[in-house]
Amino acid sequence: MKALIGNALDARGLKSNIAVLIEKNKIHEVIPRDRLKDYDVDEVFGGDGYLIIPGLINAHTHVAMTKFRGLGDDMALDRWLNEVIWPMEKEWTGEEVYKWALIGIAEAIANGSTTINDHYFFAEEIAKAAQKLGVRAFIGQTMMDLVDMPIAEPEKGFKFFKKWSGKDELVTATLAPHATDTCSKDLLNDVEELSEKKDALVHIHVSQSREEVKRVKEREGLLPVEYLKEAELLNERLIGVHGVYLTEREVGLYAKSGATLVHCPISLAKLEGSIAPIISLWEKGANIALGNDCAVSNNAMDMILEMKFAAILNKVKTENPTKATAKDVFYWTTLGGARALRLNTGLVEKGYLADLVLINAKKLHFLPETNFLSHLVYSARGSDVEKVFVNGELIYNEGYFLKLKMSIEDFYAL
Hints:
2 domains; Urease, subunit C, domain 1; TIM Barrel
């Protein structure tokens, strides 16, 4: 049995000076620290000045796009995709995707992510990279049929889903149509049919650019969310991403559907200069999760940084400093992501999966020790992460990836 010692923080509050006991892959007990002597514990981690939090969930990412970091900065989304990203992606090889997926996932883990939800090409290579590092991963092969992109042929996505469904305890296959403007009604109908049959999650970009909204309206006579509703995809299995240009009607439809909207505040502020109507969705009852999008548009795989931007940018969007509280954004990054992915994670409580992060809070920016939730969201950095546990196993320890047997410095030689 393992024990993590420190102050435990989750979206329900702070538990001071406790020990989190891990048995196999679950939290066995959360006890006062002075009771630790009553248990047979093999390994103890943390101590005074440490913060134990649920593993952060990156609910929308493209980990292999880490290769393109620093390219296409300061461009609008449509130009960015058509002139920079898609031309380079057409030259991708599986070997390159595997290498850069390793690097992207490693960066995510080192910054406190225990779960990623990835949407990309060469999904099998990304799944293999996830296995190597020991992260919990939801992975879908990007599919589109209205754009000439051979690596995104729909059959590849369906093939990956069928091959990887149930194959690995930590890797879950999803269905990943690209976006409402790049996928035909026939393709979305095929996705919906398989999703319903297999109870599979569907991961899709929705209303991420003005051009997307325009194309869907011209082609279908519908707004993006209306298009998803017509395709019968607007339900609790749907994980829609961005939603920057949702109308009031779409917000209402989405909030009633049970679907999750993944908010990627840094990416879309950078690419579109806009923020989704997240607070309106949230206040109408929609489930919200948080994602980083990718290291090209972000430009980091750091969900601690993402929380800070989610809080601040939504205050700007609503012109209301009381919105998007630290508690809200921490919820989105833990319990919101867990609900979207149907995971028993997100709380430091008995019976939950032991996906946990140990943060070294013995730093100047954690002083005074008065409000750890505020400090985590507004002051902390990804570099404060010291140890990461997934499924009860220590996978990252002070710059070293245990399953891969590599340090951060070793990645420079890949």
